[in-house]
Write a structure and sequence with these properties.
It is built from 6 helices and 5 strands, in the order ααββαββαααβ. It has helices at about 1-5, 10-60, 90-95, 160-165, 170-185, 200-205, and strands at about 65-75, 80-85, 120-125, 155, 210. The strands form 2 sheets. The protein has a 3-stranded mixed β-sheet with strand order 2-1-3, with helices on one face. The longest helix has about 50 residues, at about 10-60. It is rod-shaped and about 140 Å long.
């Protein structure tokens, strides 16, 4: 037996190498086949986790408040058109406009009212037969104080500053209204305002619910 092994040792070595090579081939081939499956499974789990987190985060995002525009007039330090958010109140917009002047009649203002898009907030002066505050762009009072006549500007008594608080009335038209009163006498009806140059039907429609005689 020993002599046979010596004579055939090359064949034995080759056979052993072939056996080891076969075992190695099947082991590596099997690992290569199963490994991508495991890798794919891990990638799918990662993607699922990312997708779940993304869905949760997007679902928890708060809704942004709607932007609206409000026109602030009268006894305000910085009158003009201001941007506001739904849910804000009159006091918030007034603060943004620099606050009230010393002449403002605070008793005519509902500071706690919620603002609305296209609202006009008019702050009358003390002793003024002005508009109650605030009013909407359609001219319907959102907060009424006193009688209806007290909530309107008297075009027979208002001075230039008060007249300019009306929509569409600037310095030139305010001066023309006073000039008309001085030359033609007091307005007999609010429709007589259309006798003023530059005040047509469209402008009058915006004014008719805001003025009195």
């Amino acid at each position: 037996m020993k002599d046979w092994l010596i004579e055939h040792k090359i064949s034995v070595l080759l056979g052993a190498l072939l056996t080891l090579g076969g075992i190695y081939y099947f082991y590596v081939s099997d690992s290569a086949t199963t490994s991508p499956v495991n890798t794919l499974s891990m990638e799918e789990k990662v993607q699922e986790n990312v997708g779940e987190k993304g869905s949760t985060q997007s679902g928890n995002q708060p809704e942004l408040p709607e932007k609206i525009m409000v026109d602030v007039k009268g006894q305000i330090k910085q009158p003009g058109v201001y941007q506001a958010n739904t849910g804000e109140r009159v006091i918030d917009v007034i603060s943004r406009a620099g606050g009230l002047t010393d002449k403002a009649d605070q008793g005519m203002v509902n500071f706690a009212e919620h603002v609305k898009d296209e609202m006009i907030i008019y702050i009358p002066a003390k002793g003024e037969e002005g508009l109650s505050s605030p009013i909407t762009s359609s001219g319907n009072p959102a907060s009424s104080v006193g009688s209806q006549n007290e909530a309107k500007i008297n075009i027979n008594k208002a001075d230039e500053t008060e007249l300019q608080n009306l929509p569409g009335i600037g310095p030139a038209k305010a001066a023309a209204i006073i000039e008309y009163r001085n030359t033609s006498g007091p307005f007999k009806t609010v429709e007589d305002l259309k006798n003023i140059s530059g005040i047509g039907d469209k402008t009058f429609e915006k004014l008719k619910d805001l003025i009195a005689i």
